[in-house]
């Protein structure tokens, strides 16, 4: 099963539900898909809810994904997409790395990104008040 994204434009951000089995190639493919939607909707914030993703990314996969994401965001900005895009990822272990290695790699390369295990915390970091009871209680869609 590949990774799939369900992308919904909301007021002030893109709400993204990621499902499937993590693989580095699929993560790269879906990230490009997300950036296309960001450009289409001229959004500058994205919440990627990947709590339904399964898999165990290796340390090197985390490194390569963080590096790829940061370089790709920089490339998109040079082509006219929003330059300061804020990305919040909501994940569960083992896809979520408690040490946040991939986040550190991407942030060190200029990407505005943070990982969370709570949708509510991610929305607050994005500056978006929870819109409904599901957001406030961290219920998985």
Provide a short characterization of the protein structure.
The chain is an alpha/beta fold and 141 residues long. It has helices at residues 24-41, 59-78, 101-108, 119-126, 133-137, and strands at residues 4-10, 13-21, 45-54, 86-90, 112-116.
What does this molecule look like?
It is a single chain. This protein has 141 residues and is α/β, with parallel strands linked by helices. It has a single domain, classed as Transcription Regulator spoIIAA, CATH 3.30.750. 42% of the residues lie in helices and 26% in strands. It has five helices and five strands, in the order ββαβαβαβαα. A five-stranded mixed sheet has the order 1-2-3-4-5, sandwiched between helices. Helix 2 links the parallel strand 3 and strand 4. Helix 1 packs parallel to helix 2. The longest helix has 20 residues, at 59-78.
Distance between the termini: 19 Å
Report the C-alpha radius of gyration, rounded: 14 Å
Shape: globular
Low-confidence stretches are none
Structural class by SSE content: alpha/beta
Q: SSE order in H/E notation?
A: EEHEHEHEHH
Supply the CATH superfamily name.
STAS domain
Q: What is the number of helical segments per DSSP (H or I, 4+ residues)?
A: 5
Number of strands: 5
Give the helix level as a range of percent: 40-55%
CATH topology descriptor: Transcription Regulator spoIIAA
Strand order of the largest sheet: 1-2-3-4-5
The CATH architecture classification is 2-Layer Sandwich
Q: How many structural domains in the coordinates? A: 1
The level-1 CATH class = Alpha Beta
């Amino acid at each position: 099963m590949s990774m799939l994204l369900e992308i919904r434009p909301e007021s002030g951000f893109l709400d993204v539900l990621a499902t499937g089995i993590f693989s580095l190639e699929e993560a790269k493919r879906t990230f490009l898909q997300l950036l296309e939607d960001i450009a289409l909707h001229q959004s500058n914030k994205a919440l990627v809810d990947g709590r339904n993703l399964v898999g165990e990314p290796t340390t090197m996969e985390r490194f390569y994904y963080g590096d790829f994401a940061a370089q790709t965001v920089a490339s998109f900005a040079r082509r006219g997409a929003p330059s300061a895009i804020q990305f919040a990822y909501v994940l569960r272990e083992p896809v979520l790395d408690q040490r946040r290695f991939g986040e550190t790699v991407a942030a060190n390369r200029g990407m505005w990104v943070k990982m969370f295990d709570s949708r509510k915390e991610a929305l607050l970091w994005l500056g978006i008040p929870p819109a409904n009871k599901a957001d406030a209680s961290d219920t998985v869609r």
